[in-house]
Amino acid sequence: MAPKLAPAEPSSTSRKGKRTAVSMMRRTKGKTSDQQQPSDSNQNTSNGAQRTNNKGKRLAVEASLEVHKKATFDRFTFTTPELAQRFHIHFANRTVILGRNIDLVKLNYFHFDVFFARMGWLPIVSMKEFVYPRVVKCFYCNMKFEDEGPITTSINGVSINFDVAELCKILDIPNEGVCLYEGKKWPRVEGFKAAKAMQRLCGYPQSGILTSHSLTVLSRILQHMISNIFIPKGGHRDDVSFLEAFLVDNIFIERKVNMGYIFFQHMKASSLSEDSVLPYGMFITKIVKYFNVNLWNETDGKKLKSFYTYNAASLRRMHFVRKKYGSWARKLVVPPSEVDVSSDNGSSEDDENENQAVEARTSENANVTPILSKEGVGATTDAYHPSHKGWNEAEASNNLITQISSLSTRLEEMTLANDRRLTSLETRIDGFQEEFKAGMQVIRGQHDEMMAFLRGHFPLHGRDHI
Questions:
Q1: Which among 27, 44, 137, 436 has most CB atoms closer than 10 A?
Q2: Which one, of 394, 126, 168, lies nearest residue 260 by Cα?
Q3: In this predicted model, what pLDDT tens digit does every residue of 36-60 receive, in sequence order?
Q4: CA distance 48 to 54
Q5: d(CA 95, CA 48)
């Protein structure tokens, strides 16, 4: 029987081989994990690089578009690409105020021709020019000026440069009078007192807030003309600025005001603004014509329509009615029996122009940022309107309002009549003075002839003389 052999003990060499194999496996696993981590980081890096490349492409596209835009801007209209960009951002969509004029014949009751002739503003209120909106927008976009320097701009490659004196020459108005442009408070002018001015505008002492509803009929119409022709602004015309009230009062008392200076400053303010209306459409047409700018290629020319002319229809749209014997009053306080029906024949014209009125109000309300501040000015609401009361109280209130309105109208008529009489009296007094001076010259001549005759026939002897 073969002897059993004892189990052989593992040698140190075999144990060492096992440890080596285990360590090799561990190192292999570590290498595998190490190789996996760089692959993930490489994937993240590739995604970031792709995003960077996409962003770079977008920037490159935007830059190329900007370069293309700068390279393709209208060099004939704008001197630099920045001006072209400014035009498209701040001026292309702004509303242009065409301007208005006055039918002095149809409104002869108010003697507007006398008022504006005394101030030297007849060429302004009777102007009729085509308006080119693109030219107006380019005029304000290209405008450059300093605080007290002239205005410089360019239209269709033609340079335009003018100051206040030349602007007055272009518009054919006098370059004289008070120079001011202040809307936040009453102007400080020698001899001007706000309390007396408000009394002239309202017909009675007024110490509160000045609104269009507190003005007399004549003052309200003049204020409306000032806010449309002389200092155009967006939105409604119910607010009364201090400058507007000051100008209306100056028209009444014939104090000279340099309107060329006001136009000049209002143009500057409109150019600096980014969303206000662009005023003086007809004035700018007259200016560019003065500098021989070619307008033959302009295709957006607009002719002033009858809606923009102050006449009887305009007054009716302002809620005034003509009473018998020719006077005008607010429609709310005039009984139907006192309305002059024979003269109220403009309803068809009003209906025809109603769409124009709505369109004009809509376009102006889109850009209502005012140039001048209107501090201290506001509109009042009638919280106690007669319709909120009982029938008897409303009727009594209407009767009282009618009587007050009738009295106010009579006072206005008396004021106008007295003004005309005083003007006629001043003219007659001036004529009497001239006749008196001529008579005195005749008497002096006759006296000299008589004295010469007496001296010739009766020589002087010592103290005995005539």
A1: 137
A2: 168
A3: 554 554 555 555 555 555 555 565 5
A4: 10
A5: 48
